[in-house]
């Protein structure tokens, strides 16, 4: 563990990213303490600029507190990011594992199925799914999971392909272990590091995707999200720039932090790769 | 200068342009010939043949090319247009219109009474459900001579004249439509009317151009050479076009309400909220009475009392429009100022709900209702967000569902909703535009009928009495009575009397002179030098 942290902290950006991410988590956790009441409540006059009348980041067109919106919105963004990533991993890892381990015609079938999903532009597909199932938080998470699993499946399959002919797997087979237990206890742990790195980046892209959907008005209308804040501020940007700029910064910082952490994880989990990169720089 | 003005006065004394010249002079400017007026059309309509398409953008642009027999003043008095005069018999059943002479279609053919008979009895009767509902009252409609039309009704119908505006029943050319499918006739793509401007060019997605019709029947008019409607899909680009002077006039929902305060401050622009008296759109929370507890009048009244309508007007619509006071807009005929819904009072609303037997649960919620925001743009979403907060104060949880415009219309039409937002035109008279929402005989699976399912025999009887009475005073009595019942019953929760500002450069004159705002023919509009 100490070794892991040492390698992770060698990448200074990753540490900064982690700090930012913890801050975002703290804001999400304490949102109802920092900003009690509903973020939809009209707290003051509309279009109050940042810093005036006790509005840290200004108020929107209905006099709602933008800071409260961002704080409460961070919960939804992180929740959507986490839940949809878990859902994505479930689909992607199982299909990738089956395809990589079993091989043969099963591999072919699963990969063609994956390619089918990869050929559809993912954002358009997500819009379509949300529009069909009416915008609710469940349909948004579902849509994000459905459009983002193919890369996971491909990475996991590649790992499995290279691992399944290794000696320790053959040894396990000879010992008469069942296929399922070989996959779960022998191969998967060894394939974990690329999955961890990939999923940290997927959380970031899920947050972006959710924000883009909300921006277009396809978010859950009962939940305050960052994308919704930007979408509702877009048309009044000439009157109230703060309505879209601050939630935009929130998305930017969070996604950047996740990417930095992802890079740090990749360095920590693939020491050889990191050393090469360090040597080059 | 004095000479030319005297010349104008002399011409005015004899010509039918009297009205407009006076208006021009009242502003201290004599009408000037020439110039191009650029406006905007949002969204782009599929066709400009009025009747075939009756949506807002068509109703705004097409009256430049098509005219009705009449038009209406801001107080909804009929004004002559293609009919230069008319008489109504004592019993209110016989209408005789004398038509203008020397009127030509844009293709050069003469306009006659046959065109009028065709337009009323065939064209609009087939195409427009709204016109059909009224025109089925006609027993005979005949051309007495080429310039006289006589219409006999089966029963007296006092608001009948309101159906003869260009937006309700524009007169179309018989020789271009008779015997064809009206929707696919070639004239639909190249409209031919009697109006001051003739259709010249339409580049889809770009602009519609209409040029001055030289044989227009009003002497010396129109003043403008060309009218151009530009298609600009983005609202901020529309605002920029108006600010930069690329276009000189914006109408209806071209400009978003939140941009209006800034535009009001520009010294060269006039923001005019008049001209919607004929349509008088009224917005409300549409309630489905089949959903409990919305069948309880106390619940509806409490919900209505929880809404601060001044907040909606001032904060959401930036001061454009008026709080609604009842089912009839204050600009519609037979509005009764004494019948008013209960004022904004959250405490009383809560007390009323306690009384009605809806206690709050642990979360402070009495009951939950689903709510579909009107998918006509951002401001309606904001309105629903406000209403959700307002309802929370009386323990009513509104659960918002998003839909697109198509599903909204389908779901409201099929009664598949609990609450939503709706706004409906009143067409000047409660019988034409208000009755349809409240009488039980109009409970239909069609949007803009009594989709809420409200039913009250007393209300039915009063609307019927007002419909069949031939005398205005008698109708006023019935309408006052029905307004008193409705403001107590609150079948729908009326919110605001909407107004859509017409914003134009101050050098454009005579823009709003009728009760139809920018949906007029523009023959008297000119650009002062």
UniProtKB/TrEMBL annotation, chain A:
<feature type="domain" description="ABC transmembrane type-1">
    <location>
        <begin position="74"/>
        <end position="262"/>
    </location>
</feature>
<keyword id="KW-0813">Transport</keyword>
<dbReference type="InterPro" id="IPR025966">
    <property type="entry name" value="OppC_N"/>
</dbReference>
<keyword id="KW-0571">Peptide transport</keyword>
<keyword id="KW-1003">Cell membrane</keyword>
<feature type="transmembrane region" description="Helical">
    <location>
        <begin position="123"/>
        <end position="147"/>
    </location>
</feature>
<feature type="transmembrane region" description="Helical">
    <location>
        <begin position="76"/>
        <end position="102"/>
    </location>
</feature>
<dbReference type="InterPro" id="IPR035906">
    <property type="entry name" value="MetI-like_sf"/>
</dbReference>
<comment type="similarity">
    <text>Belongs to the binding-protein-dependent transport system permease family.</text>
</comment>
<dbReference type="Pfam" id="PF12911">
    <property type="entry name" value="OppC_N"/>
</dbReference>
<keyword id="KW-0812">Transmembrane</keyword>
<dbReference type="InterPro" id="IPR000515">
    <property type="entry name" value="MetI-like"/>
</dbReference>
<feature type="transmembrane region" description="Helical">
    <location>
        <begin position="195"/>
        <end position="218"/>
    </location>
</feature>
<keyword id="KW-0653">Protein transport</keyword>
<keyword id="KW-0472">Membrane</keyword>
<keyword id="KW-1133">Transmembrane helix</keyword>
<dbReference type="InterPro" id="IPR050366">
    <property type="entry name" value="BP-dependent_transpt_permease"/>
</dbReference>
<dbReference type="Pfam" id="PF00528">
    <property type="entry name" value="BPD_transp_1"/>
</dbReference>
<protein>
    <submittedName>
        <fullName>ABC transporter permease</fullName>
    </submittedName>
</protein>
<feature type="transmembrane region" description="Helical">
    <location>
        <begin position="239"/>
        <end position="261"/>
    </location>
</feature>
């Amino acid at each position: 563990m100490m070794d892991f942290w040492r390698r992770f902290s060698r990448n200074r950006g990753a540490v900064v990213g982690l700090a930012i991410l913890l801050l975002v988590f703290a804001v999400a956790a304490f949102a109802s303490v920092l900003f009690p009441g509903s973020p939809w409540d009209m707290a003051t006059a509309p279009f109050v600029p940042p810093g005036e009348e006790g509005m840290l980041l200004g108020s929107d067109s209905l006099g709602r507190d933008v800071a409260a919106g961002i704080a409460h919105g961070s919960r939804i963004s992180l929740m959507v990011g986490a839940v949809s990533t878990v859902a994505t991993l479930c689909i992607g890892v199982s299909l990738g594992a089956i395809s990589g381990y079993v091989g043969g015609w099963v591999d072919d079938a699963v990969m063609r199925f994956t390619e089918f999903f990869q050929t559809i532009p993912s954002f358009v597909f997500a819009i379509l799914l949300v529009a069909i199932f009416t915008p609710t938080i469940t349909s948004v998470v579902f849509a994000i999971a459905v459009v983002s699993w193919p890369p996971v499946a491909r990475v996991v399959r590649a790992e499995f392909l290279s691992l399944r002919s290794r000696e320790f797997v053959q040894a396990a087979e000879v010992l008469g272990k069942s296929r399922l237990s070989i996959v779960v206890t022998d191969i998967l742990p060894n394939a974990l590091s690329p999955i961890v790195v990939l999923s940290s980046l997927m959380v970031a892209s899920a947050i972006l995707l959710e924000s883009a959907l909300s921006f277009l008005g396809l978010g859950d209308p009962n939940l305050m999200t960052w994308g919704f804040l930007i979408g509702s501020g877009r048309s009044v940007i000439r009157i109230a720039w703060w309505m879209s700029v601050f939630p935009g910064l929130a998305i930017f910082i969070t996604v950047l932090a996740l990417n930095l952490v992802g890079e740090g994880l990749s360095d920590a989990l693939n020491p050889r790769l990191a050393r090469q990169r360090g040597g080059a720089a | 200068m004095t000479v030319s003005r005297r010349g104008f006065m002399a011409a005015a004394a004899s010509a039918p342009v009297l009205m407009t010249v006076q208006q021009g002079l009242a502003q201290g400017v004599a009408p000037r010939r020439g110039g191009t007026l650029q406006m905007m059309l949002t969204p782009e309509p599929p066709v400009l043949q009025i009747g075939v398409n009756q949506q807002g953008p068509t109703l705004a642009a097409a009256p430049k090319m098509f005219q009705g027999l009449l038009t209406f003043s801001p107080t909804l008095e009929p004004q002559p247009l293609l009919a230069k005069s008319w008489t109504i018999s004592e019993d209110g059943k016989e209408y005789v219109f004398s038509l203008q002479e020397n009127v030509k279609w844009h293709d050069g053919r003469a306009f006659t009474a046959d065109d009028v008979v065709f337009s009323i009895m065939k064209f609009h009767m087939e195409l427009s459900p709204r016109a059909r509902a009224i025109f089925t009252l006609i027993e005979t409609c005949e051309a007495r001579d080429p310039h006289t039309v006589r219409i006999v009704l089966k029963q007296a119908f006092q608001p009948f004249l309101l159906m003869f505006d260009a937006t309700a029943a524009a007169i179309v050319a018989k020789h271009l439509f008779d015997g064809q499918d009206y929707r696919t006739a070639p004239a639909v793509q190249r409209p031919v009317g009697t109006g001051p401007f003739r259709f010249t060019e339409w580049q889809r997605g770009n602009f519609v151009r209409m040029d001055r019709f030289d044989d227009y029947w009003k002497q010396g008019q129109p003043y403008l050479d060309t009218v151009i409607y530009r298609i600009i899909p983005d609202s901020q680009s529309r605002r920029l076009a108006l600010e930069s002077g690329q276009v000189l006039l914006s109408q209806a929902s071209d400009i978003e309400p939140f941009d209006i305060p800034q535009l009001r401050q520009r010294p060269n622009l006039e923001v005019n909220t008049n001209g919607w008296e004929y349509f008088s759109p009224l917005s409300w929370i549409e309630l489905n009475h089949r959903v409990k507890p919305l069948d309880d009048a106390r619940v509806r009244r409490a919900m209505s009392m929880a809404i601060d309508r001044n907040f909606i007007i001032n904060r959401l619509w930036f001061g454009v429009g008026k709080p609604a006071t009842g089912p009839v807009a204050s600009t519609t005929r037979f509005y009764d100022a004494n019948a008013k819904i209960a004022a904004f009072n959250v405490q009383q609303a809560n007390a009323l709900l306690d009384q009605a037997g809806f206690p709050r649960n642990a979360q402070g919620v009495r009951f939950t209702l689903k709510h579909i925001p009107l998918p006509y743009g951002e401001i309606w979403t904001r309105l629903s967000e406000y209403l959700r907060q307002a309802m929370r104060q009386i323990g009513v949880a509104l659960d918002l569902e998003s839909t697109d415009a198509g599903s909204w219309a389908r779901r409201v039409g099929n009664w598949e909703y609990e609450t939503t937002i709706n706004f409906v035109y009143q067409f000047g008279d409660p019988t034409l535009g208000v009755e349809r929402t409240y009488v039980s005989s109009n409970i239909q699976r069609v949007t803009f009928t009594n989709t809420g399912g409200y039913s009250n025999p007393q209300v039915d009887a009063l609307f019927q009495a007002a419909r069949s009475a031939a005398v205005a005073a008698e109708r006023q009595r019935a309408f006052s009575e029905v307004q008193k019942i409705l403001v107590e019953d609150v079948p729908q929760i009326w919110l605001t009397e909407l107004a859509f500002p017409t914003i134009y450069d101050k050098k454009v004159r005579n823009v709003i002179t009728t009760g139809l705002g920018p949906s007029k023919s523009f023959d008297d509009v000119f650009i002062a030098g």
